[in-house]
Specification:
The protein is an all-alpha fold. It contains ten helices and no strands.
Length: about 200
C-alpha cells in the first residue's frame, strides 16, 4: 500500500472498526437483547456489566480496548509513525462515539481511547489509569474516574515530552469524553449519579 493510500484508507478502516458496537453484540450474545434499552442505555462496558453481569462487562471492555489498540498499532506501522498512529487511534474513538452502524450514536469512548494510548504511550496511560482508579475508589462513580482519567492523560503526555501528534489526539479524546459525560455531570450536580454496583435511577 502506498503512503498516500494508507494515509486515507487506514483512518477510514479504523473508524469502521471503532464503530463496531461491541456492547450491543455482547448484550445480544448474552441473551440481553438490545443493551440500549437497559440501564443507562449506553453500549459501554459499565452499562453492560450493570445490566448483564460482570462477565459481559469485562468482555465488552476487552473488545472496546482492542478496537483502539489495533487501530493505533496498524496506523503507526503502516500509516507513518506517530502521526499515523494518532490519526488512526482518534478515528477509532470517533467511530465508537459516533457509530455509522447506530445512526452516528454510540458509547463514550473511554475504553477505546484506553486501547489507543496503551499503544501510543503506555507510561502516560498508566498514570491516567491510576487517576481513574483513585477517583473511582474515592467516589465509587465510574463517570468521575473516566473524566478525571481522561483529563490527566494529555497532562501526563505533556510532562513526558510526547510528540505533538499524541498530545493533539489526547486533548481531542479528552474533550470528546467529557462532552459525552455531560448527562453524568448533570446527575452528579443533582446527586443522582449511581455509584458502582448501583442501578441507574
Amino acid at each position: 500500500m502506498s503512503g498516500m493510500g494508507a494515509r486515507w484508507v487506514i483512518p477510514i478502516a479504523a473508524y469502521l472498526l471503532g464503530a463496531v458496537p461491541c456492547g450491543l453484540l455482547v448484550g445480544k450474545a448474552f441473551g440481553g437483547g438490545d443493551i440500549r434499552r437497559s440501564g443507562s442505555g449506553n453500549i459501554g462496558a459499565t452499562n453492560v456489566a450493570r445490566s448483564l453481569g460482570p462477565a459481559a462487562g469485562v468482555l465488552t471492555l476487552l473488545l472496546d480496548v482492542s478496537k483502539g489498540a489495533l487501530s493505533a498499532w496498524v496506523g503507526g506501522a503502516l500509516g507513518g509513525g506517530p502521526g499515523g498512529a494518532s490519526l488512526a487511534g482518534l478515528a477509532a474513538v470517533l467511530g465508537h462515539v459516533f457509530s455509522v452502524y447506530l445512526g452516528f450514536r454510540g458509547g463514550k469512548g473511554v475504553a477505546t481511547g484506553l486501547g489507543v494510548f496503551l499503544i501510543l504511550d503506555p507510561r502516560a496511560t498508566a498514570v491516567a489509569a491510576m487517576v481513574f482508579v483513585g477517583a473511582l475508589g474515592a467516589t465509587r462513580r465510574v463517570s468521575v474516574g473516566s473524566m478525571l482519567g481522561s483529563i490527566s492523560l494529555p497532562l501526563a503526555l505533556h510532562f513526558r515530552g510526547a510528540p505533538p501528534e499524541f498530545l493533539a489526539a489526547a486533548w481531542a479524546c479528552c474533550l470528546l469524553i467529557v462532552y459525552r459525560h455531560r448527562d453524568n455531570l448533570t446527575r452528579l450536580i443533582q446527586g443522582t449519579e449511581p455509584r458502582l454496583g448501583e442501578k441507574k435511577t
